[in-house]
Structure formats: structure tokens, C-alpha cells
Amino acid sequence: MPGAATRERFEQAVLPHLDAAYNLARWLARNDEDAQDVTQESFLRAYRFFDGYQGGNMRAWLLTIVRNTCYTWLHQNRPPQSDVVFDEEIHSEESFGGADPEIQVLANADKETVHRAIQEPPEIFREVLVLREINGMSYKEIADVASVSVGTVMSRLARARARLRESLGAALGKES
Q1: Which of 5, 72, 82, 172 suits 99 as a labelling partner, its CA being 20 to 30 A distant?
Q2: Dihedral angle at the C-alpha atoms of 34, 36, 39, 43, nearest 10 degrees?
Q3: How far apart are CA 74 and CA 82, in angstroms?
Q4: pTM for this prediction
Q5: Which residue has the higher pLDDT, 91 or 56?
Q6: What value does the CA radius of gyration of the chain take, rounded to a whole number of Å?
Q7: CB-CB contact of 63 with 38 (8 Å)
């Protein structure tokens, strides 16, 4: 088991990426509790193999572990193409902080529409969309995380964006 010095190095190097790790797990797992479990398991794995880390982009290394852990967890715990609904808490106390309630309801409805639209594409498209648009990763970093070529990342991202546009267009058309 790694010692105190290793633990301190691990915490300094990896903990700043906790939000990005949880965020990816949340979008892939589609469930807060499952994402927490996946993130915890990912950090345990990262800690266990931290001495073998060869340097480079720490965030990409960690998100690769999160991605692989999440897909393993999903494979073991859910049937393929699960219909789990995204569970966003849109009516928290913070969301109404002094603003006009009607504006808050509309803003939350828009957020919910976007969250639902992001959940629709298959996992291979959703993961590149989340890594690029939400986590702000470069194509190269995404390619490293997903173990695919940069061209594949670009292709998947283009398809994911097209599906997102279609989904949002359909949702906005229904609201009109």
C-alpha cells in the first residue's frame, strides 16, 4: 500500500479533478448515486495504480479510469441501453434565490430540456459531448480518454452535436 508521501502527492495531483471525474460519471451513469459509487471506485483504482502513473495529462489519465470504471459498472449492474431517466433536482432552494419565480421556472425548464437532450444519444456520442462541451477537453485529450483516434473523436462529436440539435429542435418545436 502506498505511503503517506504518495498519498499527499496523489491528493495534490488528482483531487483537483474530482469535479470533472464526478461530472463524467454522472452523465454516463445517468444517476447521482451510481455516479458517486463510480467516482469513489475510480479514485480507489487511481490511488492503487498511482505509482505506475507515467506523467502527462493527469486529468485525461483520471477520466480514462472513470470512463472505464463506469462502463464496467454499467455492464455489471444494468441491462444494455437502460432507460434510466436523468434525475435533475430543478427545484432546489438555491434555484429560486430571490429571482422572479416565472423566470426561474422557464430557466429550469430549459435546463431540463437540454439535460434530457444530452441523455438521448448513445454512450459513445454522449461521452465525447460531455468531455468536450462540459469538461472543455481538447480533441487529443478526449482521444486519450476514449482510446480512439482524434478523427474518431471529431466524427463522434459531429454526430453527437447533430443529434443534440435535432433533439432540441424537436423539443422547442413542441413547446411552441
Answers
A1: 172
A2: -130
A3: 9
A4: 0.65
A5: 56
A6: 18
A7: no
